[in-house]
Amino acid sequence: MTLLMSLMRHVRLLSISFLVAISLHVMPCTASDTTQVCTIDANGQETCVQEPESVVSESNKKERICLPDGHCWDSLDLALVERFNDQTKATHVKLIKPVPFGEAQQVAGNDNAKTVQVLGETYEYMVGVYNNETTKSFRDGCHCRHEHCAFWAAIGECEKNPSYMLLQCAPVCQTCHQLSFEYRCPYDKNAPMAWGPGDLNKMFERITTDPFYVEKYEPNVLSKPPEGPWVITMENVATEEECTKMIELGAARGYERSQDVGARKFDGTYDAVKQDTRTSHNTWCVDECYNHTLNQNVIKRVENITGIPDANSEYWQFLQYEVGQFYAEHHDYIPFHLERSQGVRIITVFLYLNDVEEGGGTHFTKLGITVQPKRGRVVIWPSVYDDDPNKRDPRTHHEALPVKKGIKYGANAWVHQRDFKEPYSKGCS
Q: Which residues pair with 347 in a beta bridge?
């Protein structure tokens, strides 16, 4: 019976979202401090009644929980429940609006006692979070985003699956501070970068003049300084077998509608949004796809061409364009990356995985250059300036022209100033 009562108590508190913001305005006092009790009705009218001396008993002299309007309770739990249920009194007391922190929790599995214990610990933890002024920047986003968060915490998922649990179930893992992107993903502005001033030109000059690259990849310079930014193509970067396998790997992962960067989310990451200006489908080559031998062969060639470690590259974005699909003019540089661990995107390597019957070219809108898809061909261009490789070069705006006949398959790699894959694994990219 004790366990059942405890369970009901904690589940009820969770179901009313633990109105813990009120605790910021709850203060201990004795009955002798509150001999005049005041209430405020829905119309804002205050009524105060002087308590007779006889009301002040020994039991009332113990520490109680009181609000500034004179309402007192024997416990914080009673205060929270009554304040939630009574919508007619004290509606004009200046309280911070109570903020729910998540889904009502289900108690599942065999270890109910452990789940109940987690709920109780979560309650105490969140009261502390809302009483701490230093948590203001992230506490409103500290929610349990799934009804089984408490159960998962009880069976050890906070430790086993931290990339999900510490953010999506932060209250039960007691990791609200992890929602502060600056805390979770500290940015070291002095960390070494792939490119300094002058390195961009050096890379392109190397791969367009060195006999090894000239003979192996047949580089074609479409634009170069001083007239414009570097834009080049290279042939046979991937074999027919490798291209076919990459298309198969993409199909196995499943293509979904391509999305662009949206608004900042509660944890400092950014949402993805569908746009009418981008109608292709894509998927990401991670896990088994990334580790496949044929895919790794291509990655090693790209790494050799750029001279930048694969760790700095995002995972391949596999793309599928059907007839009529396109990606309107855009730029690959994302400003908020400048103060992220991985740094900005400095270069794009786009690999065509098949020949396209008609249309589907990559068009550089400010340069008047269009590159037609051809299996095994890459087109390479920078997103930054040579003399300031952290600053966006607007000249490399581009678009994917509509496919007129056939299907276009491609693989897109964005290379960053610093290691991308390590921050990505921690949810910090």
A: 382, 415
